[in-house]
Amino acid sequence: MHKKIAVLAVLALGMLSPSISQAMTPEETVMLSNAAERGNDGAQLLLAFEYLHGDAARAKDEKQAAYWFERAAIQGNVAAQKMLGDLYEQGRGVPENLKVSADWRTKAALRGNTDAQVSLGKMYLAGAGVEKSPEKAEYWLQRAAIEGNSEAQFLLGKMYKLRDSNTREQALSGNMLAKSASQGFGSAAEFLQFMENARYKVSELFHQHPADIHKLAQDGDAESQYRLATRYESGHGEPQDSAKALYWFKKAADNGHVMAMKSLAHIYAKGLDGVVADPRIAEYWANRAQSAQP
């Protein structure tokens, strides 16, 4: 699990290299794609990063990256919302659209992503994609600065310094600039803040349950049944066995596990895990998954 989180961290910062891209085995790459297709927003996020940067398994494709960022963003993944805002600003994989960029950044900013808050603050300062508003710019920069974002501290300090403000704001300006300088952009503190705010869920794909996962599955625990199914399907944690994977997916689905239902819909739609593709069965499980969601 730690290896996958490390890969994710590097991808998140845009520092993909051949050695990192090879950190995922072919089985894990398939597992990731399957999970993304089945609606896991964390997997969709990681898949989007892979397409954004390109690696040994996937050629760089910014349109595919934008597609997967959007699928994760629609589900409420904060990091995906922030990234989609960036792509719309830059016109990468999607037509350049500053208004749409601001909309996605607002969604991420409202949920605490400091990078989105800073970007949104800068948009309000410049009147780019939004109506110019120093007040709203200050609001978003303050929120990010309070959380320790060094760029927000710098911009806020500069804003206070340049305007004809009171003694308290001048003091705050010096304080903010000092904090920003002491951190420096790209600092470890900023990196950790980004990772915390992003709230990645990919690690759940590789989560290792205790040794009694078999007992829990036999006892009817739907989550354990689903995890056991993914292990047998991928060969990650258990010997690869498509029949056992299918068995436990069905057990978990019958016990109400939505991701297991989505997995079965995907398996029967694509003819995976040794089954013959059957659109009727795929539709059945897709409908059950839709009905089971809150």
TrEMBL record:
Pfam families: Sel1. Keywords: Signal. Residues 1-23 form the signal peptide. InterPro entries: Sel1-like (IPR006597), Sel1_AlgK (IPR050767), TPR-like_helical_dom_sf (IPR011990). It comes from the Bacteria. This is Sel1 repeat family protein. It comes from Sulfuriferula multivorans. The lineage of its organism: Bacteria, Pseudomonadati, Pseudomonadota, Betaproteobacteria, Nitrosomonadales.
